[in-house]
């Protein structure tokens, strides 16, 4: 039962899903506007590359700090920070002109980790045994926003302008910030949901919140000892993060070069690119909404991780001539791995450290995005498209074999 004046856990979950969908909607509306603005300003391809690298770099710096901030001060404040920073970034683009301001608008994105904040809420409110399913359903909400944002952005830009589209994205972000503040409790880690007490009173909630503030006051956001614990001392988190890196590198390289491959080798038009983006979102939503829920009830996470790696192995080995055919297994395998690794990481640490470990997990994506454009370009120029499939097959096969071996030992 929720405390006095506090929403029930199901209502908090609903609010989180709605705000993640709005965040995704705003993000993809702005993402669609940025290339057209750069084209208007006659920015070079190199400038676009620098902009992408800067985005990945600030996300890398902010991910672990954002997670630690959420552990110390609560998911509500962390989400408000993320949505507020997103609104500032969109508003900067909407109200200004020129490449300098575009680069400046990337700086607030260091704090824009709304999906990570949503995962904190879901982790705090969900049963550890059902966490994979809960995290997967959060991905559906993000996918809904992605589809709507991708489809509506073109109409908005055509009817108004790129600047107005970014202004709409800013309004959505600030609206989510207000909604989070009003609907999500200050501290979910000390909530009755996590303590399994269904009759907690408002006075108990107040005492929990006071203890939460007291315990966090002596800690610090930038805690190298805490981060090194996950990377060095905790064997389970170290292994899971290694799986994320090894399987994520080939996918990151392929994603960074996908626009060039699709246009130069497959002759994809802008319309096909838009349909492909929506296709990826729909497949991802289907896997997270139906596949994860059914599979996690019948099979162990380690076995499903093996299957995910095996899927990547089977289909990354072919050359990419039929993009839509290849995307299907890629998305299925990648979605399985991402959801299961995130869930396993939160179960591998104490409740007080779930935000921090999710932050490190998110940072791996940023590291890969920083290195991928350069490495992917070198591979494409010197080796060809087949090299992406070969690297992915080898990496995924090694991980799948290792996980299967460990699983069979336990059986």
Automatic annotation (TrEMBL):
Database matches in SUPFAM superfamilies: MFS general substrate transporter
Parts of the chain that traverse the membrane: 50-67, 79-104, 139-157, 164-184, 239-263, 275-296, 302-323, 330-349, 383-404
A GO CC annotation given for this chain: nuclear envelope
UniProt cross-references to Pfam families, sorted A to Z: MFS_1
Keywords from the UniProt entry: Membrane, Transmembrane, Transmembrane helix
UniProt-recorded Gene Ontology molecular function terms: transmembrane transporter activity
PANTHER family in UniProt: SOLUTE CARRIER FAMILY 22 MEMBER 18
Protein name: MFS domain-containing protein
Species assigned in the record: Macrostomum lignano
């Amino acid at each position: 039962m929720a405390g006095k004046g506090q929403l029930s856990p199901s209502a908090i979950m609903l609010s989180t899903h709605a705000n993640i969908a709005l965040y995704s909607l705003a993000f993809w509306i702005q993402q669609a506007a940025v290339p057209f603005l750069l084209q208007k300003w006659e920015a070079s391809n190199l400038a676009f590359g620098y902009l992408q690298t800067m985005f990945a770099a600030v996300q890398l710096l902010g991910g672990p700090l954002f997670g630690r901030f959420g552990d110390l001060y609560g998911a509500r404040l962390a989400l408000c920070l993320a949505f507020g920073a997103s609104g500032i970034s969109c508003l900067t683009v909407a109200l200004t002109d020129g490449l300098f301001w575009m680069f400046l608008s990337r700086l607030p994105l260091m704090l824009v980790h709304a999906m990570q904040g949503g995962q904190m809420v879901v982790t705090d409110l969900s049963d550890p045994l059902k966490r994979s399913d809960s995290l997967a359903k959060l991905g559906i909400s993000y996918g809904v926003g992605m589809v709507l944002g991708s489809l509506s952005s073109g109409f908005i830009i055509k009817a108004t302008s790129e600047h107005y589209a970014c202004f709409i994205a800013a309004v959505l972000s600030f609206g989510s910030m207000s909604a989070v503040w009003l609907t999500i409790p200050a501290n979910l880690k000390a909530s009755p949901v996590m303590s399994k007490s269904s009759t907690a009173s408002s006075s108990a909630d107040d005492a929990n919140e006071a203890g939460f503030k007291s315990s966090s006051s002596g800690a610090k956001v930038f805690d190298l000892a805490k981060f090194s614990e996950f990377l060095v001392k905790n064997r389970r988190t170290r292994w899971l993060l290694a799986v994320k890196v090894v399987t994520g590198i080939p996918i990151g390289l392929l994603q960074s070069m996908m626009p060039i491959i699709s246009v130069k080798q497959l002759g994809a038009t802008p319309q096909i690119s838009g349909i492909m983006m929506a296709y990826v979102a729909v497949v991802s939503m289907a896997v997270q909404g139906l596949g994860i829920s059914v599979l996690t009830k019948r099979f162990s996470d380690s076995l499903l991780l093996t299957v995910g790696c095996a899927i990547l192995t089977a289909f990354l080995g072919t050359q990419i001539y039929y993009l839509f055919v290849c995307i299907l297994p890629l998305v299925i395998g990648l979605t399985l791995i991402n959801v299961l690794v995130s869930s396993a990481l939160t179960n591998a640490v104490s409740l007080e450290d779930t935000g921090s470990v999710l932050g490190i997990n998110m940072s791996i994506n940023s590291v890969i995005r920083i290195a991928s454009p350069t490495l992917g370009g070198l591979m494409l120029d010197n080796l060809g498209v087949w090299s992406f499939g070969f690297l992915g097959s080898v990496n995924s096969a090694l991980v799948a074999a290792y996980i299967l071996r460990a699983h069979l030992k336990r059986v």
